[in-house]
Amino acid sequence: DTAVSQTPKYLVTQMGNDKSIKCEQNLGHDTMYWYKQDSKKFLKIMFSYNNKELIINETVPNRFSPKSPDKAHLNLHINSLELGDSAVYFCASSPGTRAQETQYFGPGTRLLVL
Amino acid sequence: EDKVVQSPLSLVVHEGDTVTLNCSYEVTNFRSLLWYKQEKKAPTFLFMLTSSGIEKKSGRLSSILDKKELFSILNITATQTGDSAVYLCAVGNNAGNMLTFGGGTRLMVKP
Q1: A53 alpha-carbon distance from chain centroid
Q2: Which residues pair with B65 in a beta bridge?
Q3: Nearest alpha carbon to residue B6 among B104, B74, B86
Q4: What is the pLDDT along chain B (111 residues), one digit of tens a residue?
Q5: Which of B46, B79, B81 is CA-nearest to residue B64?
Q6: How far apart are CA A17 and CA A15, in angstroms?
Q7: CB atoms A48 and B101 under 8 Å
């Protein structure tokens, strides 16, 4: 029943490792997003993706890459993890191709890099 | 760069009180402003505002946008402990496909 789901919920890993977070939406939405929320609760867009374009927030390091096997999935792959990558990562989706619509968020993945 | 500032950063009230949360923004080519409520996990959508002066209302919550003065307020009347959460404001522009979020207001409602 879950509209936007993410796995895993928690991820603890060592610096330098490569990890992926998966996201799936069963809403039939066209656009998916990844956000990073830091310890101060600041929610920052990382990527916006639909079947026509990928928009990358220029502040996101290129160690982060989104991968979309199909319209319902947008996974986040992170290479060479750093301490500063520790945060909660939220996936979201929206019906159309514009971010300025209601976005539905997943439950978040709490990443801790040791 | 688009910018969204929310105030106050945090607020503690008692049940039954009325609160007003503020969101001011600087956006190139503004399109919409959205309010979200975040409890323990994911943000959940409250309102989307695109026109000035038109109040949106849902139960005890209401919100209004002023595009001239570049701000929005979120009002919660007769607060309940279940209203305790972080309230996030976000703006979208016509240029890109991203929302810019403010830092949130943490509301705590005491019994």
Answers
A1: 16
A2: B72
A3: B104
A4: 789 999 999 999 999 999 999 999 998 888 889 999 998 888 998 999 988 888 999 999 999 999 899 999 999 999 999 999 999 999 987 766 678 899 999 999 999
A5: B46
A6: 6
A7: no
CA distance B111 to chain A (A): 25
Contact A90, A34 (CB under 8 A): yes
In DSSP terms, A4 is beta-bridged to A25
Give B36's Cβ-side CA count (13 Å radius): 27
Residues of B in Cβ contact (< 8 Å) with A107: 41-42
| Dihedral sign, Cα of residue A6, residue A8, residue A14, residue A18 | negative
How far is the first Cα of chain A from the last one, in angstroms, to the nearest whole number?
Answer: 34
**Tokens standing for A12?**
């603890």
Distance (Å, whole) CA B96 – CA B111: 43
Any CB–CB contact under 8 A between B44 and chain A? yes
Joined together, the tokens standing for residue A39 give 């310890």
pLDDT at site A90: 95
